[in-house]
Design goal:
alpha/beta, 8 helices
């Protein structure tokens, strides 16, 4: 009987040891799986835009206001400021540019409270189109919400390479732009781009034409000057033109040039199309500015976008140097 009892106790002990080993193994697997999932979530947060709430580091929230060009400045500034302070730039799931670009920054649910003004420090710029040193005068010890237009390249210029990767158009937009460009090249009988120079043009009209704030739309004379600038420096020049006032633009562009006008597309497709050109003619406004930035090459701009002494003029630095790049060419 005693032998049987000893054998039973040994068997029971072995079973308990086996059970404990099994539980320990399961705990180990669970911990490792959790680590893997956290790492995967972190990777997705940077690459695939899931709805992830980060609290390992403090965040810089970007608030979308106005339209596409403004939103691009707001996003770019938040990215640049966050990177400079080793913080995490975040946008909400409804941020308008998500439908246009393949943004890879972290996304938080709109109702998560992460970017809620009631719990986060809000920093407000002094001038919408100037660099504000006081705006960026904070540490990374707390979450920050940036307001409002942030219209200066000085906020993000050091991080332009990363920003260009952020501003890759969504496939449906790029596909339509590619087809549009292919159609233009066929109509203009351009067999190869190696022997031609394509100049993108954007002409802002709309609310700039009749306003009491001091906005000044680009003139017919400016367009003639800009066209001539390129014709004197390049051969086989073709112009691809987008505008919110296409009728006025057709009547005021030089008549002797080889030109194609973009009509019937969304603003995003217009921007994607003209940005495939070699150089650019910008007029006024943030949309036109970003068309030039994405295009690269030589960028001409209208250097009198505001009436002196006006409300709008006060939004810029004294010589517009915070808004226009020094290597861009004002006419």
């Amino acid at each position: 009987m005693r032998i049987i009892q000893r054998c039973f106790r040994k068997t029971l002990l072995k079973m308990l040891i086996f059970l404990l080993c099994g539980i320990t193994f399961l705990i180990f697997i669970a911990v490792m799986l959790n680590i893997v999932l956290m790492q995967k979530a972190d990777l997705l947060g940077r690459q695939q835009n899931p709805l992830i709430v980060y609290k390992r580091s403090h965040v810089v929230c970007v608030v979308a206001r106005a339209r596409m060009g403004n939103n691009m400045f707001q996003f770019a500034a938040a990215l640049g400021i966050a990177r400079s302070k080793r913080m995490i730039p975040v946008i909400t799931e409804y941020f308008p540019l998500r439908k246009i670009f393949k943004l890879t920054v972290s996304v938080v649910p709109f109702n998560s409270g992460i970017c809620d003004s009631s719990r986060i420090i809000t920093r407000v710029e002094q001038k919408p189109s100037s660099y504000d040193k006081e705006l960026v005068n904070f540490t990374n010890s707390h979450d920050v919400r940036l307001v409002s237009y942030l219209g200066s390249y000085l906020y993000f210029d050091k991080y332009s390479s990363e920003l260009r990767k952020q501003f890759l158009f969504q496939d449906n937009i790029q596909s339509e732009a590619n087809k549009t460009m292919e159609g233009i090249l066929n109509r203009l009988k351009i067999i190869t781009r190696r022997k031609v120079t394509l100049i993108g043009v954007h002409v802002r009209r709309g609310d700039y034409v009749k306003n009491n704030e001091g906005y000044l739309p680009a003139t017919r004379e400016y367009l003639y000057q800009a066209v001539e600038w390129y014709e004197l420096r390049y051969t086989n020049v073709y112009f691809i033109v987008a505008s919110g006032g296409i009728d006025w633009t057709k009547n005021n562009m030089p008549t002797h040039i080889k030109v194609a006008y973009l009509e019937g597309h969304s603003p995003a497709v217009d921007m994607a199309t003209v940005s495939m050109c070699d150089h650019f003619i910008s007029t006024v406004g943030t949309f036109s500015w970003w068309c030039g930035w994405l295009t690269g090459g030589n960028v001409l701009y209208y250097k009198w976008p505001c009436k002196e002494g006006s409300l709008v003029r006060a939004m810029y630095s004294s010589n517009y140097s915070d808004f226009f790049y020094p290597h861009w060419i004002g006419l």
